[in-house]
From TrEMBL:
Entry protein name: Formin-binding protein 1-like
Ranges where the record places region Disordered: 294-346, 368-389
Domain (F-BAR) ranges: 3-260
A single BP term in Gene Ontology: endocytosis
A GO term from the CC aspect: cytoskeleton
GO molecular function, one term: lipid binding
Amino acid sequence: MSCNWGTELWDQFDNLEKHTSWGIDFLERYTKFVKERADIELSYAKQIRSLSKKYHPKRSREDESRFTWCLAFAATLRQLNEVAVQREELADSLNTQIVCELTRYTHELKTERKTHFQDGRRAQQHIESSWKQLESSKRRFERDCKEAERAQHVSDRIDLDSKTDGEKCSSQLVKQQAAEESRKDYVTSLNQFNQDQHQHYHTLVPVIYQRIQDMEERRIERICEAMRSSAEAERKVLPVVSRCLDAMMDAAESTQPRMDTRQVVEVYKSGFDPPGDVEFEDYSATMRRSISESSYLDNRTEGRRHSRKLWPFIRKNKPPPPPPTSPSPGGVASSPQSPPPVSREPITQRLNDLMTSGSRTRKQCLRSLKRGGSSPADCSHLPPEQRRKKLQTRINNINQEIQREREQRDALLKMREVYEHSPQMGDAGSLEPRLEETLNIIKPTCLSLSTCLSLSPDGSYTEDHSAELHFKSRSSEFDDDFDDEEPLPSIGTCKSLYPFQGQNEGTLSMVEGELLSVVEEDKGDGWTRVRRNLEEEGYVPTSYIKVFLDSSAKGAMTYI
């Protein structure tokens, strides 16, 4: 069905003006709606991204990388973050493709509408002016006709003399001529108005209203196009969002409860056997145990046997000793506490100090390396099974680091060989610093591996025994270098307050009241290095002794 506002709504100018104004208001409201929706999408994406980041597992938590349910949750958070990215893209599409375009189009539409209705008002004013002119001509013609008719009636009723009759006839003739001229003006105005009216309602109004109708149809089409663009923008992100949801489902399906429960066993299994039966304790006979000289000599022999191990720094190991059960006579009233744990430098920093230091400083760095980091180097604080796994992991990491450095060294050697045969390709001497740097990295790494291998009493912490022998032989040159070290000078003396059984490697046994030489002060870790003679040297708890430093030492300090 054809529809033309120019013919169907020729007399609805005011209503068309109101309707088109309401249409533009609707366009502006729809633009605001899309903008607010884009803001909501952007805010939603921001909140989802913040939520995903908040609950994303921290790198320091190793437990969350072991269990399948933790991995599934981490995968879900990653996919949720991808959903947030898609929502941000949707918001950007709504803003750039719809909001900006509709804002520009609304401004153009207002300008076009104003032009069309100005043309309509001018046409309306023209037809109204023509109508007013017609009415004026009509009233003047009506007035002149009435005056001529009245003059005719007066001349018929009064019989005057010839002079008077001549004057009346002359006045009547003038009025009749005026009426005739008014009639001609009225006819002219009427023809002009009819012509203007025909042109107004059959030419001007249809053209102007048709333009307004076309403008309204374009506005509606633009709104529909914006709706389609909005739906299309969201449809583009739906496949990616659907894949993210599928990935979340796959992550949920990948959880394996039985594997996680087995992993709990791997993580927390101690390796200890269950306790046996409790033995009967006979309280009928009282026995008092004391430390005899023979047991003390046995401890000294045991200490020497520990100090003869291949690892040259084994006497530096200082595990925390148990506190004495009761203070010996003549000691302080309260038993001393075990040395508090202290934070130490990481092993990598010790290795860097080792690589960049001189010969004697290197030995001091190696001593510091042997003492370990924030936890004991031998992992003695862990149960046997966990200790084995920890050391095996450490050995594997060191092996990988050594393998990388060896590959780099072999590549440098091949490059140097090529340069030696073809000097035009490069200077072989320029590779020497890099080769030396690589060797300086490999040597301390081998020492660190030897440390891990020596921490096992049975050598069971590595599956490759040939590699263990190889790296032990590589570190032999450092062992020989340390064995030739001159003993450190004495900086004072000390007196033992309590007996101490040095059952761990690197410690020294002592009896109450024994005088020893102080070789190294307490560095803040609760241990003091002492010497009994040129062959017996080790660490004792600082809280078990009373130290008297020489006057030439750094101040006079006493540890009680």
